[in-house]
Design brief:
Strand content: 15-25%
Number of strands: 11
Largest sheet: 11 strands, mixed
CATH class: Alpha Beta
Number of domains: 1
Radius of gyration: 18 Å
Structural class: alpha/beta
CATH superfamily: Nucleoside phosphorylase domain
Length: 273
């Protein structure tokens, strides 16, 4: 699958509406159409530390796309079309561990897919066949940068975490949440899959920064903590957006021009026909 990189925009940011004021200075919005349709919204392009960065709101400017209807393929294809080689993706997550508290950040290193089969989770439905490696899904190079910069900023951040991705838009039942915790998983989210797989298939480095907005219902049942509500999720996300921006800015500042990871070669190895 070939894409034309029309601009040298090598860094992509996928996140929520709190990032619209992320750029300082002149920006422009572009419409990018792909063979998979239109992305969630127009893509904002700006400059940070002398680097062009493309920002795409995952759910759209008006949050019009629920998790199960986000046009993931169009989003990733649009960023690839612009020339993006690295994606920094921010997500809100629920905690399945008492020691991972609301307001904490987690640099995920593994995911578990518990979504339904209705999602389009690959660019390759034949005749070209691709089997992408997922043993270590998140870019090792970007993860190291993120962990180092979070430590320097003295922002409470967990250097690894297993996120279980559910279909959404509903939250987990008590039974599901307890099952997730007992399985050894740390976080629950609705959007990291298939986003990460699609990026990997196109050789794009993918980093996730998870902001913990709440304890999932299984933790609340054990410790009499108030159960998750959408009001709590939005409030905690808003309260910690500035910290999230600081981490993202520090990562972008310290990204080198040349990639030293396996992400691109992994995608090339995956092609069978």
């Amino acid at each position: 699958m070939k894409f034309m990189a029309k601009n040298q925009i090598k860094i992509g940011l996928i996140g929520g509406t709190g990032f619209y004021k992320f750029f300082k200075g002149k920006t422009k919005e572009v419409e990018v159409r792909t063979k998979f349709g239109s992305p969630s919204d127009k893509i904002t392009i700006g400059n940070l530390f002398g680097k062009k960065v493309a920002f795409l709101p995952r759910h759209g400017k008006k949050h019009q796309f629920p998790p199960h209807l986000v046009p993931y393929k169009a989003n990733i294809a649009a960023l690839k079309k612009l020339g993006v080689e690295r994606i920094i993706a921010t997500t809100a997550v629920g905690s399945l561990r008492e020691n991972i508290k609301p307001g904490d950040f987690v640099i995920c290193d593994q995911f578990v897919d518990r979504t339904l089969r209705g999602k389009e989770s690959t660019f390759f439905n034949g005749p070209q066949v691709v089997h992408i490696e997922m043993a270590y899904p998140y870019c090792s190079e970007l993860r190291k940068i993120a962990i180092t910069q979070a430590q320097k900023l003295k922002i409470r951040t967990h250097s690894k975490g297993i996120v279980v991705v559910i279909e959404g838009p509903r939250f987990s039942t008590l039974a599901e949440s307890l099952w997730f915790s007992k399985s050894g998983w740390d976080l629950v989210n609705m959007t990291q899959y298939p986003e990460i797989v699609l990026a990997s298939e196109l050789g794009i480095c993918y980093l996730n920064i998870s902001l913990v907005t709440d304890y999932d219902v299984g933790i609340y049942s054990k410790k009499n903590i108030k159960p998750v509500s959408i009001e709590e999720v939005l409030k905690n996300f808003e309260n910690n957006t500035e910290k999230l921006k600081k981490i993202v800015l520090a990562i972008i500042k310290n990204i080198s021009e040349k990639r030293e990871c396996e992400c691109e070669s992994k995608a090339k190895r995956a092609i069978l026909s």
